[in-house]
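Record format v2
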Amino acid sequence: MSGRKLSAELFFYLGLMLVCAPFLKLHTAWLPAVFLVVWGLKWFGDFSGRNEGIGRLREKVVGFFRQRSTPLVLLLLAVAVVVPFGASTYLLDVLTSALLYAILASALNITVGFTGVLVLGFIGFYAIGAYTTGILTTKFALCGFWLALPASGVVALLFGLLLGIPTLRLKGDYLAIVTLGFGEIVKIFCNNLDALTGGPNGILGIKRPSLGFATLDSPQAFYWFCLAVLAMVVLIIARIADSRYGRAWIAVRENEMAAGALGIDVFKKHLLSFSLSAFFGGIAGALFAAKQGFISPDSFTFYESVLVLCMVVLGGIGNLAGSLVGAGLLIVLPEFLREFALYRMLIFGALMVAFMIFRPHGLVGSRTIALEAEDHADGAP
Amino acid sequence: MRKWLVLFCLCMLAVACTKKGTKEENVIKIGAAGQLTGPEAVFGADMLNGVKLAVEEWNAKGGVLGKKIELVPGDDQAEPRQAVAVANKFVTEGVAGVVGHFNSSCSIPASDVYHKAGIPQISHASTNPQLTEQGFANVFRVCGRDDQQGKVAAEFALGRLKVKKVAIIHDKTTYGQGFAEEFQKGLGSGAQVVAFEGITKGEKDYSPVVTKIKATNPDAVFFGGIYTEGGLLIKQYKAVGGTAPFIGGDGIMSEELVKIGGPATDGTYATFGPDTKEIASAKNFNEAYRKKYGEPGVYSIYAYDAANILLQSIQKAGSIEGAKVVEAIRAIDYNGALGHIQFNQKGDVKDSPYVVWKVEGGKFKQLK
Amino acid sequence: MFLQHLLNGITIGGGYALIALGYTLVYGVLKLINFAHGEIYMIGAYLGFICVSLLPALPPFFQTHTLVFVCLIFLVAAGLCSIYGFYLEKICYRPLRGAPKLTPLISALGASIFFQNLVMITMGAKDKIFPQLITQQTMTFAGVSFTWLQLTMIGLSLVLMLGLYWFINRTRLGTAIRAVSTDPFMAQLLGVNVDTVISVTFMVGSFLAACAGVMIGLYYGTINFTIGYLGGMKAFTAAVLGGIGSVTGAMAGGLLLGIIEALGAGYFSTEYKDVYAFFILIAVLIFRPAGLLGRRLHERA
C-alpha cells in the first residue's frame, strides 16, 4: 500500500472516529456494527479490485440470475405479496413508502439512467401528481380516485413537456440546475396559490380509493395496491428499455453525436424519456396523496429530490433492479437508524460518502456504465 | 490484529442483541413526538425535556398503575411523511398516549393515525384550528388556537394602539400564515391592511420586504412567524429607517428575539399565555427544569403539562386502553403548572387566556 | 426606493458572488458541481462565530482595536476553512476521479448532509448570535438608508473578487489553474501537478466562501446550520447564470441575482422572490445556453 493511499485511509478512519465519538456514552454496543459495515464494504472494494476472479464470479452470478430471472422475479413478488400478513402497521407504512419511492426511483432512472440527463428537481412532478389528485378529489369533487390517478400522470406529463421543450436542448449541468429550479418553483407555487392548493395548510381529507366492493382503507390493501402499480410501472419501463426506443436512449446517452449521425432524433428521444418519467412521477404522487390523506408543501423539498436521486445512483445508474434495491435501502435503513435519533442523519451522510468511495458503480451496477467509466479513466474528463 | 478486532466487534454485537431480547415488558410507554433533528431541533429538545421531567417525577413516585413509565421519543423532522411514520411506530410499539407533535402540519396527518388506533394525542404547541376541527375524539391540545390568538392581537392593535394602517408579514408556514389571516380577520374594517407579504423562512436578508413595508408607512407591522425571522425583520426594518412597532404571537416570544434584533426590538408586542413566572403553580416546574436542563423554552411547560395530563388520566382510567384514557382526559379537571386546565367538546382548552407582552429594556414584560 | 432596492441587492449579491466563485472554480478544473460548497460557507460562518466568542479571553489589545480583531477573524476562519476544503476534496472526491459522473455528486450530497448534522450536534440547533462588534448607525443619503457595515461589506467583497482576479490571471498557480481547466491532460503533459492544482482550487474556493460566511454573520448577526443550503443553492444559480466555469461570470451572476431578487421582491410580490431568479435563469439559458459570460463549452455529450 502506497503512502498516499495509507494517509487517505487514515483520514477516512479519523473522520469515522469523529462520527462515532459521540456514541461512546450511549450506544457503545452499536459502534462495532458501523465499523463492521465499513470494513466489509472496504474489504469487498479492495478484494474485487485486486482479484480478477471475483469480477468473473460476479458476472457469473449476475448471468445466473439473468438466465433464471423469471422464477426469481416471481419468487420475490410472492414474498412481497405475503409480507403484509402478520406485519405491523408501522412496518407496512414503511414498506408502502418504500414502494412509492421505488416507483419514483424507477421513473427517475429513465432520464438519469437511460438517457443520461441529470434531473435535480424530480420531486416537482411528484408534487404535481399529489396535488392534482388532492385538488380533483377534494376541492371540486369532480371525480373519484380512479379518474384522478391517470389524470395526475397526464398533468405531470404536460408539465414535463412544458419544461422539456424549451430546456432539453441544454447540456448536462445546465439542465440539472434548470430542473432544480423547476422543483423549487413547483414548491413555491404550491405554497402560494392558496385558493387552489390550500397554501401552507395543504389539502386535508383525501380519501383512499375504493374498489367497488371494498375500500383500500386497510394498510394491507393499500400496500398490495401500491405493489401492483409498482409491478406495472416496472414492467412497462423494462419493456420499453428493451425495445427500439430503449436502445435508442442508450445510444443517445453513450454518444449524442454518433446517435444523431445514425438518424436518431436526439431531442425527441430526450423529450419522450423526460415526459415518461414525469408521468410515472405523477402517478407516484397520486398514490402518496391517497396514502397520507394529507399533503402540504413540506413533503416536497429539495431533500426529497436528492433522496430519490441517491436511490438511483446507489442501486446503479441505468439499472432498474438497482433502483428498487436503492429505494428499499434508503427508506428502510433510516428507520433502523431511528434508534440513534440525533445521529441518524449524520451516519446517513457518512454512509453515502463511504458507499460512493467503495462501490462507485452502485450496488447492482450496470455494465454499459462501467465501460463508459473506463473511457473516462483513460483520458480527460 | 484486525481479525481480533472484528471478532471483538462481533462479540459486542452479540451482547447488544441479547440485551435487547431481555427487555422487560412491565412498563407503560408514552410517546413524545417533535422535531428532534433538523433546523428547528431546539423546539424538539424543549418539548422532550419537559416530558422527561414529568415522567421522571411520576417514576419517582412509583409510576402509574404500579408500572414504571417509559418515554419513547419520536423524531418527525418537522416533515409530514416522517410524522406519519413516527405515528405508526408509536401505534406498533403500543404507547398509551402521545405528547406532540409540534408543527400543525405534522400533528394533523399524524392525528389521523392516532385516531384510527384510538390512542390519545395531546399537542403542546400546534395552534392551527384545523387540528381539533377534524372531529377526532382523541385529539387534544393544551395550547391555544390561532383564531383566538389572532383575535386578541387584533383587538389589542385596534383598541390600545389605535392603528389605522397595518402591514402584515408572515413566514408562509401553516402557523405563520394562519395566524396572520386570523389577525386580518380580527381587524375587520377597523384598520386598513396596506401590505400582506410572505417571506422565505431560513433566509437572512429581508431588506427588500422591509424597504417595501416602510414605503407604505404603517402604524404597526404584524408578523406571523418564529423569532429567528422576527428578530432579523425588526432589526432590518429599523435599519432602513422604519419606526412602527411590531406585533407578533407566541412564535416570537423568546429572549432570543431580543438577542437577534438587539435594541431595535424594544417596543415589540407579542400575544402569549400569561407569565409563567408569575403563576405560583409554575414555580416548581421552573426550578426543577432549570436544575436539570437549563432555562426552559416557552413550550417546555406546555409539554410538561400535556404529559402530566396524559399520565394522570391513565391513572384515573385504571388502564391504558385508548377509549378509557380518552374518556378520562375529556373529563379531567387538572391543576398543573399552567394553572387550571379543562377541555371542551373539540379538545381545546376551555378558557385559554391570551395576554399581550411587550419588550421593554431587552426583556419581555406582560402588559397590565 | 429604486436606489434603496439596488443597494440591498448589491449587498447580498456580493455574498452570493463570493460563494459562486467557489462553484465556478471547482467546476472549471474538475467539471464537477461541488454540492458541499454551501456547507463550507456555513462552516466558515461558524468558525467566525467561534473566533468572535473567544474575544473576552484575548489580550486587551484586541478588545480596543476592533478592526484588527475583525481582520484576524476573517483570516483565521478562512484559513481553517480552506483546510476543510482541502480534506473535503481529499476524502470525498479524489478517490472518485474517473468514476461515473453522478458518483461524486452523490458523495458531495452525502458530505453536505454530514457537515450539516455535525455542526448541528456539536454547536447546537439554536441560532448563534454574533455580538455587535461594530456599531450600526443608519445614515441617509438621497433617500437611501445604509450603514457603514453595509458599505464595508460591499467593499470587502469587491476587494476579495479583485484579489482572486489577480491571483487567477497574474500568478503561477493561477495560470496552472487556468491550464488545468482548459485541458487537464495537456496540462499534466506540460508538467503541471494536477492534484496540487485541484487541491489549491478547493482551498481558494473555501477561503472565499468562509469570508462570505463571516461577513454574513457579522452583518446579519445570526447564523445557523441550515444557511449552507439556501446560500449554496442561490450561489450555484448565480454561477450558472453568469456562466459556470467563468470567474467574471460568477461575480456578475452573483451581483445580478442579488439585484433581481431585491427588485422582484420590492416591486412585485415577496412570496415569489425565489421564482424570479429561476425564471430569469431559465430564460437566460434558453437564449444563451452557456450563461451570460460563459465560453461555449465543448462539453462531451
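Residues 3-50 of chain A form one domain.
The CA atoms of residues 129 and 282 of chain A lie 4 Å apart.
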